[in-house]
Amino acid sequence: MRNLLIDEPPLQVLPSLAISLDSADKALILQQIHYWLNRSNNVRDGFRWIYNSAAKWHEQFPWLSEKTIQRYLKDLEKRGLLITGNYNKAKFDRTKWYRIDYDALDNLGSALGLSVPMEWD
């Protein structure tokens, strides 16, 4: 039983995000994108971006199939929470780049009556 307790970096998510997305898995994906965006040096059009294939996302979320991950990413994009782009050098490379629309995320939280924390200098 001990090998199932936290000895590796955990994935964390706020319950309120999971509730607002009706899915803990979608909330984890969005949280993980946020994690990687904060570490990204890929700046295009004034925003930080990350990119990954479905297979690479599957490495981070091994309990989800690649098809499910693709479906969840598409849903987050459809909701306006994820913005996608293509900044690949090769035209045939269709790897999607992702960034979070933090304004849309704040609006989602506000619609649920959640206060948006203010940033302090």
Short description:
This protein is 42% helix and 12% strand.
Please characterize this protein's 3D structure.
- Strands 3-5-4 form a three-stranded antiparallel sheet. The protein has a two-stranded antiparallel sheet with strand order 1-2.
- Strand 1 (43-44) and strand 2 form a beta hairpin.
- The N and C termini lie far apart (45 Å).
- The chain is α+β, with helices and mostly antiparallel strands and 121 residues long.
- The chain contains five helices and five strands.
- The protein has helices spanning 15-21, 24-37, 54-60, 66-78, 102-111, and strands at residues 43-44, 47-48, 50-51, 82-85, 97-100.
- The longest helix has 14 residues, at 24-37.
- Helix content is 42%, strand content 12%.
